Amino acid sequence: MLSIIVLGTAAGGGVPQWNCGCDNCRAARNGHRELQATQASIAVSADEAHWFLINASPDLRQQLTQTPALHPRALRHSPIAGVILSNGEVDAITGLLSLREGTAFTLYGHQRVLDLLAENSIFNVLKPALVPRIGITPDAAFEPLLPDGTPSGLEILPFIAPGKAALFVEDSSANEDGDTLGFVIRDRASSEGLVFLAACAAITPEVEAHLRGAKLAFFDGTLFTDDEMIRLGLSAKTGQRMGHMAMSAAIPALDGLGIARKIFLHINNSNPALLPGSPERQAVEQAGWQIPADGMEITL
Ligand code: MLT
Ligand code: MN
Ligand code: ZN
Q1: Is the C-beta atom of 14 inside 6 A of ligand 1?
Q2: What is the rounded CA–CA span in Å between residue 144 and residue 4?
Q3: pTM, to two decimals
Q4: What pLDDT digit, counting tens, does each position of 106-134 carry?
Q5: CB of residue 220 inside a 6 A radius of ligand 1
């Protein structure tokens, strides 16, 4: 059995975002607290005792407090056995700093992302002897191990997702394969699995092949339309420029791939599909997609 907890659903900044007065952020502060959402991350487990985080969001501390399955079961203990990074963006890595305090776990990421951590000495707060960093290779499936070296029962297949270098190194780093990964995550015993793509700029034949027939897919839901942030006066960048495919493009592109359950993840606070009853929300739901809430639990 594969157990999944959606720890956070929002894109960078969360909902509401500290400096944003857009309609969604204002609603989330005033009267519609149900719209509040933390930055995207999921937890997966094959045994419900040991969990792996897919990305460590800046909101991780709050997410852990709100998630009983991830609470300590002894004076010093954590059910978190490891963290697997899909990219090096601030909203994927900074939660690692909340995992200091001397508990062992294993950190997995593409060498491009591990290099970013190595260049930023603040991450040395996670001592390598306690938190080993393991490089992962696209198209090479691996079984993450528990801190005592025993197998987790999970199988993770990383694959290249079209994307870009992290925002904070954009000016100094060319985009390369490995900046953004998708994952196929399976329970080895049952073979049940999901596809995780919190950032994906386009559907390549490889991405399509992984999504085809998936039982569950989490897919990049940053924006509803590519020029949304420009039209709202929030940014000069399109979704494509930020490495994100808009929902309005993803919905038709993923239609017909036979994906049993489709959930958008990494949803930006500007996205009109966040608002129940909006035409965009209706379009998303009519196409068979789900907008999740923080804390959603799924078993496969
Ligand atoms: C993104 O997904 O585009 C990034 O999280 C941007 C950011 O760090 O704000
Ligand atoms: Mn992001
Ligand atoms: Zn906003």
Answers
A1: no
A2: 16
A3: 0.98
A4: 999 999 999 999 999 999 999 999 999 99
A5: no
Task: Count how many residues are written for the chain.
Answer: 300
How many angstroms does the Cα of residue 231 sit away from the middle of ligand 3?
13
Q: What is the pLDDT of residues 221-275, one digit of tens each?
A: 999 999 999 999 999 999 999 999 999 999 999 999 999 999 999 999 999 999 9
Ligand nearest to the CA of 17: 3
User: What is the DSSP pairing of strand 181-187 with strand 193-197?
Assistant: antiparallel
82-99, pLDDT tens digit by residue? 999 999 999 999 999 999
DSSP 89-109: -HHHHGGGGGG-SS---EEEE
Ligand nearest to the CA of 275: 3
